[in-house]
Structure formats: structure tokens, C-alpha cells
Amino acid sequence: MVSVLTTSYNREDFIGEAIESVLASTYTDFEYIIVDDCSKDGTVDIIRRYAKLDKRIKFFVNEKNLGDYGNRNKAAGYASRKYIKYIDSDDLLYPHCLQVMVNSMERFPEAGFGLSSTESLRHPFPVLLKPKEAYLEHFFESGHFYRAPGSAIIRKEAFDAVGGFSGERMIGDTELWFRLGRQFPLVKFPPFLYWSRYHESQESQSDYAKKKYDELQKRVLENAFAHKDCPLNDEEKERVLKMLRRKKMKSTVFKYLSSVTGN
Questions:
Q1: What tens digit of pLDDT does each residue of 123-163 get?
Q2: What letters, b where the CB count within 10 A reaches 16 and e where it falls short, cover 38-74?
Q3: CA 134 to CA 129: how far, in whole Å?
Q4: pLDDT of residue 210
Q5: How many CB atoms lie within 10 A of CB 202?
Q6: Is 95 exposed, middle or buried (0-12, 13-18, 19+ CB in 10 A)?
Q7: Which residues contact 189 (CB under 8 A, 6 or more apart)?
Q8: Residue 36 pLDDT greater than 50, yes or no
């Protein structure tokens, strides 16, 4: 039913824990595909040891480095199941994660993908959102399109239909959720289905990310709104832009006050 996908590059400190978390899942109908992107440390040896112990693990090593999103697409190309579920090589799945995600997607066969959410006071989980609802709730409530790949499960047919990850550095996941979200309904799951690790070697913690994040997110928004199949009309787009301008102004004022007060 599910192809669990892990891509790795120099993750010898974390990859073992990630693999063990997948193998400990209460849901067992899965294949586990791991694709290493030319690691230079002991990552490959660690993965090979686990692959010998569990036949569900299918391990591949790239001949050349493809980068983050290129390798994610490569891993998806090996997938043979109905759904694909990414778990990064430094993160952990909780044991109930696959069970919750698969049951929810099967309940809503029209959905193209699902995202683990933050707490909601408006509706119980799981919930199905049509494209317009998913876009509006993202901007005005939950920001669910900012979720990392570990929070998602994707119907393989939907992933292939939109062409997978575009390869946009730092924003490829958000950009993919926007593209899926304009074409397919979204299922939202409860929170706390996986654990995301934060450490200095992640690109999201790099100086490049901190300097370029706002600029990159702006480009994602512009592309989403410019697409002919964007589910929002002009009035709704303007509502979003006004809200974002207010947030930007508040942020600018806060930064200025902090600089002059020293707080």
C-alpha cells in the first residue's frame, strides 16, 4: 500500500534511528526505499546492515550526486505502491503515523495528498479540503503548505501527475503542496505523527536559508497566484495580499523597535 522513501547524504549520526522508526511502524504493508546521494561518511555501511536484516528495505546508491529534490524524485521513481511517504534521514516516524495516514487517505479516495496539521479548533481530524478551501485555510489559519515532506503522504498518481518536486532550492516542498493543492483535494491529519530534528548541518539552518527564505516564499506565492488553475479568484487573492502586507508591516515595525530599544 505504501512506499516509504528516505534520501540520505552524510547522515551517519541519524540514519539508524530513522530506519528503526520506520521498521517499528504498527502498519506493516509497506516497502522501504532508501536512496543515498553519494555520502562520504559511514551512512552507506549503516544502511546496508539494516537492509540485510529486513527484506522490505530496498537500498540504492546514486552514481552521482543529485541534490535534495533531485534525489527525492529519484526515490519516488523506485516506488511501486499506491502512496509515497517521505521520512528524512534525520527525522523519526512515530509508530502510529503510517496507520493514521493510510486510513485517512483510504477514507477520502478523491484526495491527492495529506498533511499532518497543527491543532485545530474548527474541525476534527481527518478532514477533506477542496482546493479553494485548502488555499484559504493555508493563508488565513494554519499555514499547512509550509509543512515539511515528513508531514505528508502523497497518492503516487497525483505525484506523477504534477511532475514531482520542481527542484526549487529550499522551497521545493512548499511549491509542491501548492501545485498538488490546486489540482487535488487535501486531507489534513492530526499533529504529532512524526518528529523533525533540527541541527546545524541542515540547509534550513544555513545562512543562505535565513537570508533568502522570504524572497523564495514570495516567488512561490507569485507563481501559485499566476497559474491559470489557481483556485482563488481575484478578490480572494487580494484579501490574501492585504493580509500578508499587514503581517510584513508588523514584522518591520517589530524589528525596528527591537533595534532601537535593544530588546
A1: 789 999 999 999 999 999 889 999 999 999 999 999 999 99
A2: bbeeebbebbeebbeeeeebbbeebeeebebbbbbbb
A3: 5
A4: 61
A5: 13
A6: middle
A7: 100, 101, 104, 114, 115, 116, 117, 125, 126
A8: yes
- Comparing CA positions, the residue from 4, 5, 56 lying closest to residue 35 is 5
CATH (residue range 2-232):
3.90.550.10
For 166, the grid coordinates are 520542481
Q: Which three cell numbers stand for residue 257?
A: 523597535
Q: In what helix (H) or strand (E) does residue 127 lie, and over which residues does it extend?
A: strand 127-129
Domain locations along the chain: 2-232, 237-263
Three-class DSSP labels, 1-38: CEEEEEEECCCCCCHHHHHHHHHCCCCCCEEEEEEECC
- For residue 59, what are the β-bridge partners? 34
Question: What is the average per-residue pLDDT within 160-167?
Answer: 94
